[in-house]
Structure formats: C-alpha cells, structure tokens
Amino acid sequence: MRRFLLLLTALVAAVPAALTAAAPAQAYAGAFFPTQSSGNRGADVLAIQHLLAYHGQATTLTGVFDSATVTKVKAFQAAKGLGVDGIVGPATWGALVVQIGQGTTSDAVKALQVELNAKRNLSLTVSGSFDAATDSAVRTFQSHAGIGVDGIAGPITWKNLVWHYDYPAFTNLCDQDPDGNGTAANWATAAAIGQVEKAAADFAATGQGKLPLGDAGFEHGGDIAGHASHEVGLDVDVWPIRADDAQCTAGRITWQSSTYDRAATRQLVQMIRAAAPGHIMAIWFNDPTLISEGLTSAYEGHDNHIHIRYCEKIHPNSLYDC
C-alpha cells in the first residue's frame, strides 16, 4: 500500500508539469518580431535602443530610429555575424532579446519595462531592475497572452510582447468613434502609434486644436466593423481639420463642407508624412487639391476621413511591405 501511495503521489505531482508542457507556446498564432528601420519611432524603437545598450552599443534614447541607431544596429549585427543592413528584422530581434527574470538589473530590463508600459498601459518605473512589480507585470502579460506563466521573459514572451499592439496617449489626440467600435478600436503597432502621436503633437503645436483619431484596430488585430482593412495594426483613420478648429467637438466633415480647412489639413498631412519618413504606404483622402499636390490619393468612401496606411521593411503582408 505504501508503495502504491508513493506512486500515486508522484503521478499527481507530475500533472501540473504536464499541463504546463501542453500549454500553447505562442498564443498569437501570427505573432512575429516586427521589422523596425530608419524612420520608425515608438516603444519598439526605444526598446531596441535599450537592448543595444545592453549589448555594448549604447545610443541616445530617442525612441526614433535615427542615423545613430542605424550605425549601432550595424555594429551589433557585425559583432553577431548577422547580415549588416541596419534593419532590425526577426533575426536581429532574436539576437537582441535576452532571457531575464526577477533579480536581474540591466538595460535589457529597461527594454522590457518600456514594452510592458506601452503594450499593457502600465506605469512601471523604467529602472532596469526586475523587481516585484515587473515580475507581476510579466506574469499578467503571459496570462493575457495565453503562454506559460513563469515570470521569466524568454524568447516566446519577448516575441508576443513586441508583436502586441500599442494604445495611444490622448495628449494631442481626441477619441472619435464614427463606426461604433468604441475605445477598443484604438490599438495599432507601436510604430504606427508613435508616428501618429508625433504628427498629432506637431499639429497641436500650431494652435489649431487636437487631432481626431477614428478607428485604428483591435488589440490583437482581426476583423473590425465598418472597415475592410485595419486588421494588422498599420491602418489608422484621422479626421480632416475644421476652420473653427472644433474637429474634436463639432463633428466630422467632408472636404466639400463649408467649414473644411484645406490649409490646415494640408499641413496635417505633411506632418503625418514627416513623422514617418519611408514608412507611409498610402494616405487616402478625396480632396482633389491635395491629390493633385501628391499628398493624398483618391479612394471611394474617403471624403470624410484620412486613412493612413503605414508600412514596414520586410512585412509578411505585401500590402504593408515598404
């Protein structure tokens, strides 16, 4: 009997381990390390800069993939025997990320904290110390992502976290909901969010009001009501500007409306392009003057909103491959 009880105890103890082993290795089937390159900005770029510092290639922490970051990426790639192109694609991401857990102190932890703050709307101190709060945030994310919950940021956790969409700060944006999708439809990739936030900040500095944000996408992508696209986190809708600067309070207009401000909208589109050099696939808005100037393109149904399609180098979807 004693032998039987010992065997039974061993089998019961093995069940949690078996269940853990059977847990999905990657919750988001389409998750990948999004390529970042010159002209990108946002949380993923800032994380890359912290990871470069961890690997001895420190650069200024701008959150912008500038020429200095390109130089440091190339140096890192050369040191790791990777193709030297200054572009952080899946292979370079895979070499940059490191496995870390509670008790670790490093620039890699700062990168992790930046990602957690952006992707989970947290306010962790970016201290570089993998403290109890960071451990809790990692475990919560792992549970959210449906991957093994162990508090350790390894390759699978990093990939799911970096891929996860970002949520905008509404400092210079106002949230509009023309299609009934609510605040749940404000998610996009870290680069798209960083780039539209920069354009909004530049526009707000002109004193012509905030930028109205329509739909972007859902937290993990997928079909979104009222849109045939907006599924991969790189499509963002914003509204044209009104002559009374009341675009956040007085409702949406078309380019034909008497209150439409073409000069301000032109300025906005120029700022959108300047905030994401080399990362704009298209801007659809049917103002014929802006089309003739090469700032926007015509597309059916785009009289009353500006649809920005961002793109990345080496994107798995050809519609978003720069």
Question: Helices and strands in order, then pairings?
Answer:
Layout: H1 2-22, H2 43-54, H3 67-80, H4 90-96, H5 107-120, H6 132-145, H7 155-163, E1 173-175, H8 190-204, E2 211-213, E3 235-238, H9 262-274, E4 280-284, H10 288-292, E5 306-310
Parallel strand pairs: 1-2
Antiparallel strand pairs: 3-5, 4-5
Helix pairs in contact: 2-5, 8-9
Keywords: Hydrolase, Metal-binding, Metalloprotease, Periplasm, Protease, Signal, Zinc
Protein name: Penicillin-insensitive murein endopeptidase
Domain Peptidoglycan binding-like: 41-96, 106-159
Description:
With 322 residues, the protein is mainly α. The protein has two domains: 28-163, PGBD-like superfamily/PGBD (Muramoyl-pentapeptide Carboxypeptidase, domain 1), CATH 1.10.101; 173-320, Muramoyl-pentapeptide Carboxypeptidase, domain 2 (2-Layer Sandwich). The protein has helices at 2-22, 43-54, 67-80, 90-96, 107-120, 132-145, 155-163, 190-204, 262-274, 288-292; strands spanning 173-175, 211-213, 235-238, 280-284, 306-310. The strands form two sheets. It has a three-stranded antiparallel sheet, covered by helices on one side. Strands 1-2 form a two-stranded parallel sheet. α2 (43-54) packs antiparallel against α5 and α8 crosses α9 (262-274). The longest helix has 21 residues, at 2-22. The radius of gyration is 22 Å and the shape is globular. Pfam families: Peptidase_M74, PG_binding_1. Residues 1-27 form the signal peptide.
Write out the strand line-up for the largest beta sheet, numbering strands in chain order.
3-5-4
Helical proportion, percent range: 25-40%
* Element pattern in H and E: HHHHHHHEHEEHEHE
Q: Please outline the major beta sheet.
A: 3 strands, antiparallel
Q: Mean pLDDT, as a whole number?
A: 91
For this structure, what is the CATH class of the largest domain? Alpha Beta
Give the percentage of residues in beta strands: 5-15%
Q: Given the structure, what is the number of helices? A: 10
Quaternary status: single chain
Number of domains: 2
Q: Give the radius of gyration.
A: 22 Å
CATH topology label of the largest domain:
Muramoyl-pentapeptide Carboxypeptidase, domain 2
- What distance separates the N and C termini? 69 Å
- The total strand number stands at 5
**Poorly predicted ranges:** 1-26
CATH architecture of the largest domain: 2-Layer Sandwich
Please tell me what the overall shape is: globular
Which structural class do you get from the secondary structure elements? mainly alpha
Domain Peptidoglycan binding-like: 41-96, 106-159
Keywords: Hydrolase, Metal-binding, Metalloprotease, Periplasm, Protease, Signal, Zinc
Organism: Hamadaea flava
Protein name: Penicillin-insensitive murein endopeptidase
